Amino acid sequence: MKRNWVGVVAVLLVACGGGGGSGSSSNFDQVGTTLNGFVTSSAPAPSGQVSGYSFALTDSSGTLYETAGGNLNTSAFLAIASATKLPSVIAILTLVDAGKLDLDTPVANYLNTLDPSFNWPVANQAITMRMLLSHTAGIRQSSESPSDCLNDLTTTLRLCAQNIANSPLDNPPGSTFSYTGADFQIAGYVATLLAGSSWQTFFANTVATPLGLTTFTYGPTQNPRIAGGALSNVDDYIKILRMILKDGVADNGASVLSSEMIHQLKISQTGTATFSLPSSFPSNADSTGYTLGLFVTNAADYTSAGSPGPEFTDPGLFGTTPWFDSGLGYAAIILIYQDTATGIDMLNAVRPVVIDALH
After folding, report:
1. What whole-number distance in Å separates Cα of residue 254 and Cα of residue 203?
2. Please, are residues 53 and 38 in contact by the beta-carbon 8 Å criterion?
3. In this structure, are 102 and 179 located in the same domain?
4. What CATH number corresponds to the domain at position 327?
5. Helices assigned H by DSSP within 212-304
6. How far apart are CA 64 and CA 204, in angstroms?
7. Is 351 found in the same domain as 280?
8. Crossing angle for the helix pair 340-358 and 29-36, nearest 10 degrees?
9. What would the pLDDT profile of 124-136 be if each residue is shown by its tens digit?
């Protein structure tokens, strides 16, 4: 029987206790006030409002401000959905730094060598890791396709990747941006072959341990959802974002990624591919491209708020929204359990307040 472990845990953990916050400067008090404006006592909270939130803001020197409101506190631990993509990409990019992976080599080369019995269709031969991580591989995203194994916690990552590979492509590789978690499942499986371990062990060795993450998890399953199955609190996620601001270096001085890989996170990969946001995305979603695991924010959003940008983000299905701004050198995360539109509304409301406080 299929069970969505992430959804079950998220529901159980959404009511984590009262609010509260901490911050080193009253300059950021208005940030908390702005976010508190989205909190409602209605149960369940309607779209556009939340029963609670947790928030953290950082620059390269450390956390600048942390706060929470409603029925969540700063230790709240929730399912982050698509905000999982960035940490997963970071783990996979460590393989490039280690010389085990080339982003532009067809993944067929790795599959044929490391798992010869894996059936990789002829139509898929041109697909590269770069395409998989930028959603331009042409992998089918329909819920009626075998990709619905993404929610099957009774199978394995290999079997899920095989089911997805067996499904016909929606588009020729490299031609079209198609936002789906299915391509990340294949990318994750290839990464485990190159690492010689399970996904969870691979992530722990390359990201969680060097960064000192204590709560971030993909759960106890042999089929972790690489693009959207993690849970975290803001303290752990902000360490991931701060590592990016520090050009790949953890707070303890450990090197997680090279400068070149950090650079890759900031380059739109959609290029000549047809780019458009999925019809299922909320009307307030606004971006101009996609990198490896991140949307490129429309410049009008951050320039009007006083930043030279660019800004990158990937809001999740339940509204958790992390972002970092290369121009001003800051990053933040809003952790909620609601919907994507609400997370984007909160980002749009708090962005100018954050930027004004930084100035």
Report:
1. 15
2. yes
3. yes
4. 3.40.710.10
5. 234-245, 259-264, 299-303
6. 26
7. yes
8. 160
9. 999 999 999 999 9
Tally of domains within the chain: 2
| Dihedral class, residue 167 (left if φ above 0, else alpha if ψ from -120 to 50, else beta) | beta
Distance of CA 95 to the CA centre of its chain: 18
Q: Pick from 287, 335, 359, 354: which is nearest to 38 by CA?
A: 335
pLDDT tens profile 166-198: 999 999 999 999 998 999 999 999 999 999 999
Beta strand 78-79 with 231-232 is antiparallel
Q: Rounded CA gap, 132 and 139, in Å?
A: 8
On whether both 347 and 205 belong to a single domain, the answer is: yes
99: Cβ–Cβ under 8 A, 6 or more apart, which residues? none
pTM, two decimals, is 0.93
3-state helix, strand, coil in the chain (%, to 5): 40, 15, 45
Q: Of 195, 218, 246, at which residue does a domain stop?
A: 195
Of the candidates 5, 45, 73, 84, the one whose C-alpha atom is nearest the C-alpha of residue 317 is 84
CA-CA distance, 250 to 262, in Å (whole number)?
13
Instruction: State the Rg of the chain over Cα.
Output: 19
Token pair in block for residue 296? 């490129």
Domain extent, residue 289, equals 5-80+199-358
Q: What is the mean pLDDT of each run of 10 residues along the chain (359 residues)?
A: 42 42 65 98 96 98 97 97 98 98 98 98 97 95 67 94 94 94 96 98 98 97 97 98 98 97 96 88 94 97 97 96 98 98 98 96
Q: What is the 8-class DSSP label of residue 150?
A: G
Q: Do 62 and 211 fall into the same domain? A: yes
Whether 69 and 204 map to the same domain: the answer is: yes
Name the domain boundary from 152, 174, 195: 195
Residue 8 tokens, joined: 């079950």
Spatial distance between the Cα atoms of 295 and 277, rounded to a whole number of angstroms: 10
